[in-house]
Design brief:
alpha/beta; Rossmann fold; 4-stranded mixed β-sheet; about 25% strand
Length: about 190
């Protein structure tokens, strides 16, 4: 049963569009917002911590949680790499009296919206162009040419779903995109 207090903010985008930077900005500014930690089967990057950035779990454990219906949404985002949002994570944040902020992929965002149609604000972040998106991915220094190609192919597909979301923000300049997201969230939450 949905209630007006149980709201969810979804920030989604193709990889490299800036969703994580915008999410970090919002979380730093508003203590009533809480990062929803996703579960994943991929290995942690050098700067990532289990239980802070992601819940890093084995493919076996992830598949068991799927069978037990423990996810609000889950996807095999890349071959052999699962990501998902646990029901328990959203409930944990609501129990703290906070609003969960989900930084998730496009298909997952659509699934969450379908389950909580009246309680979600979904924001789609887009790079100004696919060329700019590619430059951003390359500048990370964490991607191989193959992974960049995979992410670019996926980005083209994901952009075709942008009209499914409440708000679209083109991230030409990060500070401006952050302010646009902030305005939308303040209106949604009545702040």
């Amino acid at each position: 049963m949905e209630s007006t207090e149980k709201k969810i903010i979804i920030i989604t985008a193709p990889s490299g569009a800036g969703k994580t930077s915008i999410t970090r900005y919002l979380l730093a500014k508003y203590p009533k917002l809480a990062f929803s930690i996703s579960a994943t089967t991929r290995s942690p990057r050098s700067n990532e911590q289990d239980g802070k950035d992601y819940y890093f779990i084995s493919i076996n454990d992830f598949q068991e949680k799927i069978k037990a219906n423990e996810f609000i949404e889950w996807e095999m985002v890349y071959e052999g790499k699962y990501y998902g949002t646990l029901h328990a994570e959203i409930e944990r944040i609501w129990q703290e009296g906070k609003v969960p902020v989900l930084d998730i992929d496009v298909k997952g965002a659509i699934h969450v919206q379908q389950q909580y149609p009246n309680n979600t604000l979904s924001i789609f972040i887009e790079a100004p162009s696919l060329d700019e998106l590619k430059k951003r991915l390359e500048s990370r220094g964490t991607e191989t040419p193959e992974s960049i190609a995979t992410r670019m192919s996926k980005a083209s597909y994901e952009i075709s779903f942008k009209h499914h979301f409440n708000i679209e923000i083109v991230n030409r300049e990060l500070e401006q995109a952050c302010l646009q997201a902030e305005t939308a969230i303040r209106q949604f939450l009545g702040w």
